[in-house]
TrEMBL record:
Keywords: DNA recombination. This is Integrase/recombinase YoeC. It comes from the Bacteria. Residues 2-185 form the Tyr recombinase domain. GO terms for biological process: DNA integration; DNA recombination. One of its GO terms (molecular function) is DNA binding. SUPFAM superfamilies: DNA breaking-rejoining enzymes (SSF56349). The gene is yoeC.
């Protein structure tokens, strides 16, 4: 299995968001949920409209039962995620029991994990980011990397990601020696 990587620069995230939003608010929402929640792609694809939108407005909190761990996860929706949900609801006018990322095949089933990865890979390619192997964990890793970069205590990241060690988290988010070196340089006491 090839190692996947996060988008480490805000301008990369902004490019992908802009591209996806111009093509499909559904796909833009998928990306925004992923980089705003640390959910695995399998959990993102299982979201129903009722779990993110109450029929009038985005929910303040989203709750899911994680497929891999069986644990319940609850997270607050950021302003960016709430805007993406509003845009989605305005365009699609979805029913509460529909899957958010419903397949266009018309059978109220979510798109497949493979299709989701294909959408993300195409977006990165179109944004000149084909050199980044984003894969199915890229959104989750992007969330965790930017939390770490913005000073979130690594023990919270361990809990969010269900990882058992700090070393595992740092490896997962692809922290490289140059980034560790920057910590020393930027401290400059």
């Amino acid at each position: 299995m090839n190692m996947t990587y996060p988008l480490k620069e805000q301008k990369q995230i902004d490019l992908v968001k802009m591209y996806l939003k111009s093509k499909s608010v559904r796909n833009y929402l998928m990306f925004t949920v992923g980089i705003s929640s640390a959910l695995r792609i399998s959990d993102i694809l299982q979201l129903k409209v009722s779990s993110i939108y109450d029929g009038k407005k985005p929910k303040e909190f989203i709750e899911v039962k994680e497929k891999k761990t069986g644990k319940r996860k609850r997270f607050a929706t950021s302003p960016n995620l709430q805007r993406a949900i509003k845009d989605f609801a305005k365009v699609y006018k979805p029913e509460q029991e529909e899957y958010v990322f419903v397949s266009r095949k018309g059978d109220n089933k979510p798109i497949t994990r493979q299709r989701a990865v294909q959408i993300l890979t195409e977006a990165l390619d179109m944004c000149g980011l084909a050199h980044i192997n984003f894969g199915s964990h890229g959104m989750r890793k992007t969330f965790a990397y930017h939390c770490w970069k913005n000073g979130t205590d690594i023990t919270f990241l361990m809990r969010i990601l269900n990882h058992s060690s700090q070393k595992e988290v740092l490896h997962y988010i692809s922290v490289e020696q140059e980034e560790l070196d920057d910590i020393y340089v930027n401290l400059n006491l």
